[in-house]
Write a structure and sequence with these properties.
Length: about 375
C-alpha cells in the first residue's frame, strides 16, 4: 500500500501530468463547435489547404507536398495502377498548371459521394485528377472504393486518375503495409500523420501570414489531441510535442498505470485492461539509461555494444574477453551471429578485419546480469551505473 501511495504522490507532483492536462484540456475551434471528428469538416479543411487560390496564401505548396506523399506511399505499397505507374516520375518534379483546377468536397457519383475531388490539375502535359476517400472514425462500406474507381475511370477515361485512401493510422502501421487496406487496391493509402508531417509542419516553416499560422496550428492541435465530443479518445496524428510529453509521462508513471490496470483486470470490470496488461507483458517496458565509467546516457539496447567498444579500445585479448563474457552469459549470449545482425537483433563491430556481432536484445533482467558479469572481471576497469 505504501508503494501505491508513493506512486500517487509522484503522479500528483509530476510536471508532465500538468503539461499533458493543459494540452489535452485546450480545445481546438472544431472541438468547441463539436465537429472535431466529423469527416466532412476534415475534408473541407484539406480541400481548402490544397487549393492554391484559397485565402491561406501558400499557393500550390500543400498540393506539391501531397504529390510527394503519393509517390512515397505508392512505391512503398507496390501500387501497380497504370495511372500511378505512368505518372509517378512526373509527380516528383511537378510542373503544375492550376489555371483550371477545381477542388470540391462531396462530389456526387453513382453509388455515393467522393469526399475530396481534385480535378483538372495539369502536370506538364498530363491532366490529373486526385480522388480522396477520407476516413476519420468510420470504415469503408458498400464497396465504396471499388464503386468510386469504376465511376471515375468511366467518367474520365483520358485522365490520370490517382486514388487515395486517407486514414488516421499511425506511421508504424502504415509503414508496414504492402497495399491499401480498402477493397480497391488501386487506391494508395495515406495517413493524417503524413498530412501533419509532410504538409502542415512544413507549411509552418514557410513565411506565412499570422492568420494562416493560427489556423494551421489550431488544426494540428485538433488532430494531435483527443476530442471531447466523441467516445473514441484516439488521436489522428502525433506531433513531436505530444509524443515527448507522453513518453515522459509514461516513464514517470508506468508503475502506477500498470497497478491500475492490474486492479481493473483482476476485478473483471474491464476487458480492455486485461488486453492492455497482456500487451505490456509482451514488450520491454524498461527505459533505463546507463553510464559507462561516467559517460552516458546509454540506452539498454546499446549498452553491450558500448561495453564491446570499450574493451576493444583498452584491451589486447579481445577474443578471450569476449568469449569469457559470452560463456558467463550462457543462454543470453553476448556474441551473436551474422544472421542475428541481418535480422537487426545484433550490431556489428569490426576489429582488424574480423566482425563481431554484439547482441542488442536485452531485458532489464538480462542486462543486469551482463552488468554483474563485467563488474566481476576487475581487470576490465568497467563501472556501469544508472544515468
Amino acid at each position: 500500500m505504501e508503494d501505491i501511495q508513493k506512486m500517487l504522490i509522484n503522479y500528483q507532483t509530476d510536471p508532465n501530468v500538468r503539461k499533458l492536462y493543459r494540452l489535452f484540456k485546450k480545445k481546438s475551434i472544431t472541438d468547441i463547435y463539436g465537429i472535431a471528428r466529423k469527416e466532412m469538416q476534415h475534408s473541407k479543411f484539406i480541400a481548402w489547404l490544397l487549393n492554391p487560390n484559397e485565402s491561406h496564401g501558400i499557393d500550390s505548396f500543400a498540393l506539391k507536398q501531397l504529390l510527394f506523399v503519393i509517390v512515397r506511399r505508392g512505391i512503398q505499397q507496390n501500387n501497380t495502377d497504370s495511372a500511378f505507374t505512368n505518372i509517378k516520375n512526373d509527380l516528383l518534379v511537378p510542373q503544375l498548371d492550376t489555371g483550371n483546377l477545381s477542388i470540391v468536397t462531396e462530389y456526387s457519383v453513382k453509388g455515393g459521394r467522393i469526399d475530396i475531388f481534385v480535378q483538372n490539375l495539369n502536370i506538364g502535359d498530363k491532366s490529373v485528377n486526385i480522388i480522396i476517400e477520407n476516413k476519420v472514425e468510420s470504415k469503408e462500406h458498400k464497396n465504396q472504393t471499388q464503386t468510386y474507381y469504376k465511376e471515375i475511370s468511366e467518367r474520365f477515361p483520358n485522365t490520370y486518375n490517382i486514388y487515395l485512401f486517407l486514414t488516421p493510422k499511425s506511421s508504424k502501421l502504415l509503414d508496414n503495409i504492402t497495399e491499401a487496406s480498402c477493397d480497391c487496391k488501386s487506391f494508395i493509402e495515406i495517413s493524417y500523420q503524413d498530412i501533419l508531417t509532410d504538409i502542415l509542419e512544413n507549411i509552418l516553416k514557410e513565411d506565412i501570414s499570422s492568420q494562416t499560422r493560427v489556423i494551421i496550428e489550431d488544426y494540428i492541435h485538433n488532430i494531435t489531441t483527443p476530442s471531447s465530443n466523441t467516445n473514441n479518445q484516439n488521436i489522428m496524428a502525433m506531433n513531436n510535442e505530444t509524443q515527448e510529453l507522453l513518453k515522459d509521462f509514461w516513464k514517470s508513471n508506468e508503475d502506477l498505470i500498470t497497478a491500475a490496470l492490474q486492479a481493473l483486470a483482476s476485478s473483471g470490470e474491464d476487458e480492455n485492461a486485461e488486453k492492455a496488461l497482456q500487451f505490456l507483458n509482451k514488450r520491454d517496458r524498461d527505459y533505463s539509461e546507463y553510464k559507462l565509467n561516467g559517460k552516458g546516457p546509454i540506452r539498454k539496447r546499446n549498452l553491450a555494444y558500448k561495453i564491446a567498444e570499450y574493451i576493444i579500445n583498452t584491451s589486447n585479448n579481445i577474443d578471450v574477453i569476449f568469449n569469457t563474457i559470452d560463456q558467463k552469459c550462457k543462454e543470453i549470449h553476448f556474441l551473436q551471429t551474422r544472421k542475428h545482425y541481418e535480422n537487426k537483433r545484433a550490431d556489428i563491430i569490426r576489429v582488424n578485419g574480423k566482425d563481431y556481432y554484439i547482441n542488442n536484445q536485452w531485458t532489464k533482467e538480462t542486462i543486469d546480469k551482463l552488468i554483474d558479469i563485467v563488474h566481476d572481471i576487475p581487470s576490465l576497469g568497467i563501472k556501469i551505473t544508472l544515468w
